[in-house]
Amino acid sequence: MKDDNFLTENNARHLWHPMGAPADSHSTPPKIIKGAEGVNITDIDGHATVDAVGGLWCVNLGYSNDVVKEAIAKQLYDLPYYSAFAGTSNPPAIEASYAVREFFAEDGMSRVFFTSGGSDSVETALRLSRQYHRLRGEPTRTKFISLKKGYHGTHFGGASVNGNNRFRINYEPLLPGCFHLPSPYPYRNPFNESDPAQLAQNIAAAFEDEIAFQDPKTIAAFIMEPIQGAGGVIVPDASFMKLMREICDRHGILLISDEVITGFGRTGDWSGARHWGVQPDMMTTAKGITSGYFPVGACMVGDKVADVFENDQTGEAAIYHGYTYSAHPVGSAAVIATLAETTRLDLKTNAAARGTQLFEGVQKLAEKYDIIGDVRGGHGLMTGIELVSDKAAKTPMDMATMKKIHEATYQAGSMVRLGAHNVLMSPPLTISEGEVNTILSALDTGFAAA
Ligand code: PMP
Fold first, then answer.
1. Same domain, residue pair 378 and 403
2. Which of 114, 119, 234 to mutate to test the pocket of ligand 1 (most atoms within 8 A of CB)?
3. Which of 344, 361, 384 is a domain's end point?
């Protein structure tokens, strides 16, 4: 490996980072992570921390799962690549589709379309939903409705249904025909409604109103995360997704559950929708599907949609969509091994227990620090802390202070992630009680530094 000076200098010179300004690499060099073990990561200075980010909400198995690593290595020797475009397939892809389908059968999913990641999966779901309506003889159903604060990746379709404007404004105009409802976010919402159940009712009414205004016959799908992740870990009322499901059904609108973060155990169950007693029409996943070890995503489809494609009489059911790396044999081998390990280790049960510990620990910190405006989580290992400079006025904390907290927390032993004025946490689902305590004590030091 090149020396530290080479790495730092050339990072700033040549490597552009997602979600950052290129010039920032000069003024604020990134932490260069060179190794990892268990749930710990080590930077080039040799500083080790508990990774409360889980890579990027994805390293569910931690960094040391040899079963997955060996499966990937073996597949590289057996068959490193072959296309899965119509006309060819490969054994790991077939086995992986079977494994994914088994995982989400309880959610009503029966078919799997593999992609290279979450944004691809969202794009796939949006396209398939338009094609579904065309095949059914309703080609006017082309519009999409989604939630503010939602994150659905960065392709033009996903960005268009995205509900955080910093992912949108520099890239406009986006896809026409995309409309947004308020987020089920009791701490801040346009209704000034702090009761989550009443807020759910208000958003349901706004959904009905928007559908009537647009004309139901023009709407293809509604997409939401069961728990909004990147928007700040926003947990809706238990009634919310069910209300959305009922409205979608009444108006012939497909419900897409974006489970890129929430799938595969992160929330304390295998899917997010399952917490809310909802079966979506399609689900999008990525991240935990390979624990981040290989870039894979999947769009899953339930029988209602599958039947229309598979019993098509129009001759238009060919899916002219897909990626060179869809159903990649090495990625598929990673999926098979990851899902077997995810089940064997019963990651959802540990996620639920350690998630409660983390959530309650952060709630205790909120009693100590006035800068903590809102603590969100309580469903597995997804925790958000919203920081404010004035608690009564709910003034968002400034970025300079956020960065100071981030650095102090890192130095004290834990990597956390900032999303605007939120601290976001999604550690590996293999994390132990002691390691959660390390995160909590590092956060305590971080908040004290504000
Ligand atoms: N949907 C959701 C809910 C996500 O959280 C993400 C990524 N964080 C995406 C889609 C996009 O996934 P990717 O970054 O793999 O393209």
1. yes
2. 119
3. 344
